[in-house]
């Protein structure tokens, strides 16, 4: 399973209902290859730091995710700690998840893509 995430609040259109709908339709249009390989991709609302969203995703996916993917998430520095907490909460650390990544000692996997807008992106983590 792969967790796709985007900014948890609306800034210039990010994280709003339209972008969530776009993400859902994009996943629906492109998930055949992932499913053919035995995987799956789902879309769910996950506002970082929101206990209700975290509980709902944790209940739906108790084993976590083999890979957390995010894009254009790092431009608001005061959201970095909440993003790190979400990645830590949902990146699968079980031996089975690590074996699926090809290395039983592999750390949880996350891929974050970003553009440098104000330099705060370079201080993430």
Structure characterization notes:
The protein has about 120 residues and is an alpha/beta fold. The chain contains five helices and four strands, in the order E-H-H-E-H-E-H-H-E. The chain has a four-stranded parallel beta sheet, with no helix packed on it. Residues about 5-15 have low confidence and may be disordered.
Strand order of the largest sheet: 2-1-3-4
Q: Decide which structural class fits the backbone.
A: alpha/beta
Order of helices and strands: EHHEHEHHE
Approximate strand percentage = 5-15%
Helix content: 25-40%
Main sheet record? 4 strands, parallel
Kindly state the mean pLDDT as a whole number? 75
Number of separate helices: 5
Cα distance, first to last residue? 24 Å
Low-confidence stretches: 6-14
Number of strands: 4
- Overall geometry comes to globular
């Amino acid at each position: 399973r792969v967790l796709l995430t985007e900014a948890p609040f609306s800034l210039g259109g990010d994280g709003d209902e339209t972008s969530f709908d776009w993400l859902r339709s994009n996943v629906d249009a492109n998930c055949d290859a992932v499913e053919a390989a035995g995987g799956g991709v789902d879309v769910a609302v996950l506002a970082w730091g929101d206990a209700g969203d975290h509980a709902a995703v944790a209940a739906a996916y108790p084993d976590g995710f083999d890979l957390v993917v995010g894009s254009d998430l790092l431009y608001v520095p005061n959201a970095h700690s909440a993003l790190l907490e979400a990645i830590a909460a949902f990146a699968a650390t079980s031996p089975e998840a690590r074996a699926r990544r090809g290395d039983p000692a592999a750390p949880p996997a996350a891929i974050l893509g970003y553009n440098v807008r104000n330099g705060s992106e370079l201080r993430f983590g």
